[in-house]
Automatic annotation (TrEMBL):
Stated name of the protein: Fmu (Sun) domain protein
UniProt record, GO biological process: RNA methylation
Organism: Metallosphaera sedula (strain ATCC 51363 / DSM 5348 / JCM 9185 / NBRC 15509 / TH2)
Xref: PROSITE patterns: SAM_MT_RSMB_NOP (PS51686)
InterPro entries in the cross-refs: MeTrfase_RsmB-F_NOP2_cat, MeTrfase_RsmB-F_NOP2_dom, RCMT, SAM-dependent_MTases_sf
Length: 363
């Protein structure tokens, strides 16, 4: 047991220093090996440890881990976050779904593989799945580890959350479109746009971070996208350089509060409201700048559960909003933009938490 305490204490130490959970876990493994342990189970235990962070007792990482092991896991949020969310959603159901985890979703990369062949192969490997009712090329994993298949290693299947897929569906890419995506990394939405249009599309992908942009280029090439049909731009999208596009996707940087169930270190960055308020300011600047572009349609989306990053911003653009119909449910009702936008929630849809709104174009 002492080995487990030491290991989890190391994980928590690195998380408190700002490392994402997978990085913290990897660092802990490099210095605190535990004998006769299933590391997949240990990772899940680490996830629940960090999810319980605000309920843990003690100041040191070791005392917090001891508290966790003695009392068990209990998903806990920063107090201000709990107060806000209990007025918006069924908080108990939401926290329970976070502890249990959400569904795993995947789609076949139809650029590189035949869907029927891939699905047949997965079935022979004992992977159980079902086709999604809203998006017929998307599948929900029922049992089995999709990431330990040859198809995953060969990039013939792509793990992508249903809410993320819904963002692309809201945009409605069509053959012949010129599509601009702002803050485009990591690139899965761009690949899906390319796939849905069977490559008959011109993509302009704008990303500020050099490293993320380089990774995006490599990923899209690996996934089979013809890079001759893509322009990559290293730019701050609050100072956009593109003048015209048929459609614009504004998948804005955000608090990432919608994925804390799988990356619980997000909660450690939400000790107060500052992060949400800072991202809200950035998002407003991006949308304002986007309206300097001549376009027919735009989609704004964030992986956030907070109205400050969704409905509050869209309330300023109600006259430009179009009804968004991509599954999910209506946005928060006390906001004017709520009925015209959509939200996905983990405790309702088994997905990441997403806000999606569609904007009428500017010519």
């Amino acid at each position: 047991m002492s080995d487990v305490v030491d290991f989890l204490s190391s994980v928590l130490h690195f998380c408190e220093r700002g490392d994402p959970l997978p990085v913290a876990f990897s660092k802990a493994k490099s210095i605190k090996r535990v004998r006769n342990v299933d590391y997949d189970e240990m990772f899940e235990l680490s996830r629940k440890l960090v999810l319980s962070y605000y309920a843990l007792e003690g100041k040191s990482a070791r005392k917090k881990v001891t508290s966790f092991l003695n009392k068990g896991s209990k998903v806990s949020l920063p107090p201000w976050m709990s107060e806000e969310l209990k007025e918006l959603i069924d908080l108990d159901a939401y926290l329970k779904s976070a502890e249990l985890g959400r569904y795993k979703w995947f789609r076949v990369n139809r650029i590189l593989a035949d869907e029927d062949d891939v699905l047949s192969s997965l079935e022979t490997q004992g992977i159980k799945f079902e086709r999604d009712e809203d998006f017929n090329y998307l599948f929900r994993v029922i049992s089995g580890n999709i990431t330990k298949t040859k198809e995953f290693d060969d990039f013939k299947i792509i793990v992508q959350d249903k809410a993320s897929v819904a963002v692309v569906q809201a945009l409605g890419p069509e053959k012949g479109d010129v599509i601009l995506e702002l803050a485009s990394a990591p690139g899965l939405k761009a690949e899906l746009i390319y796939e849905l249009t069977q490559g008959d599309v011109y993509l302009i992908l704008a990303e500020l971070n050099h490293k993320r942009l380089d990774k995006e280029i490599k990923l899209l090439s690996t996934l089979g996208v013809d890079l001759g049909k893509v322009d990559f731009i290293n730019q701050d999208s609050t100072r956009n350089s593109v003048l015209r596009a048929d459609k614009v996707l504004i998948d804005a940087p955000c608090s990432s509060s919608g994925i804390f169930y799988k990356e619980p270190t997000v909660l450690l960055t939400l000790r107060d409201r500052d992060k949400v308020e800072n991202f809200s300011k950035l998002q407003k600047l991006m949308i304002k700048e986007a309206f300097n572009i001549s376009f027919k349609k735009a989609v704004y989306s964030v992986c956030s559960i907070f109205p400050e990053e969704g409905e509050v911003i869209m309330d300023e653009y109600v006259d430009k909003l179009m009804t968004t119909e991509v599954g999910g449910i209506e946005g928060y009702g006390k906001h004017k933009s709520g009925k015209l936008s959509r939200r996905y929630f983990g405790h309702i849809h088994g997905t990441e938490d997403f806000f999606i709104a569609t904007l009428r174009g500017v010519s």
